[in-house]
Hints:
By secondary structure, this protein is α/β, with parallel strands linked by helices. It has one domain (2-215): Aldolase class I (TIM Barrel, Alpha-Beta Barrel). Helix content is 33%, strand content 19%. An eight-stranded parallel beta sheet has the order 1-8-7-6-5-4-3-2. The radius of gyration is 16 Å and the shape is globular. The two termini are 13 Å apart. A divalent metal cation binds at residues 30, 32, 63, 172. Pathway: Carbohydrate degradation. InterPro entries: Aldolase_TIM (IPR013785), Ribul_P_3_epim (IPR026019), Ribul_P_3_epim-like (IPR000056), RibuloseP-bd_barrel (IPR011060). Catalyzes the reversible epimerization of D-ribulose 5-phosphate to D-xylulose 5-phosphate. Its cofactor is a divalent metal cation; Fe(2+); Mn(2+); Co(2+).
Amino acid sequence: MKIAPSILSANFANLLEDIKKIEKDADLLHIDVMDGHFVPNITIGPVVVKSLRKFFSLPFDVHLMIENPDLYIEEFANSGADIITVHQEACIHLHRTIQKIKGYGKKAGVSLNPATPLETLKYILQDVDMILIMTVNPGFGGQKFIDSMLKKIEELKKMREDLGLNFEIEVDGGINLYNVKEVVEAGADIIVAGSAIFESSNPAQTIKEFRKAVEK
Length: 216
C-alpha cells in the first residue's frame, strides 16, 4: 500500500511546514486542483505546484477536478507533476487526453465520481497508469466514506485481473484508520487521506498508524 497525503486538508498558510512533516513517511503527495466549475470549490493551480516542486522530491500526484483539463495539461506537466489525473466526466475525448498526458512523459490517471460506472473506462484501461475511485463526491475534504464504493473497488480489481493489466488503483475520500484496511482489502494500491493525516496531532505518526492498521 502506498499513502498519498492530500494537501487539501493542510494549512495553506503554513503549507511548506505541513508537507515537511509527512515528507519522509509518504509515498506520494496528492495535490487537488479545483476550478469552482467542475466541483464547487477553488484551490490551487500550476504556479503553486511549481513552487512546491522546488522543495520536495516526493512524486506529485496531481488530481485535476476541472473542466477542459486538456487546456492545462502542459502547464501542470511543466510545473513538476509526475502523475496527472483527469476525470472521465470532464473529458469529451478521454483517450486523446490520456495520450496528451503521456506525450509530456507523465503518468496518466483517470478518476471516476461515485455515480459514474466502471463500464465507461472499458476501452481506455490498457492506456492508463492509474484509476482513481472517488469514495466521496469531490469538492471538499472531511466527507464521509460512501460504503457502496467498496464493491466498485472490488469490481475494478477484478477487471484488472481479467484483462491482465497492471494499472494502480487509487482511492480517495473519507479514508481513516478505521476503514483503511477494508479499502485495501477491496483492491486499493494507493490510499489518499487528507483530514485524517493533516488534522491529526502528529501527521507522520498517523501515516505509520495507517500502515499498521492494514497489517493487523
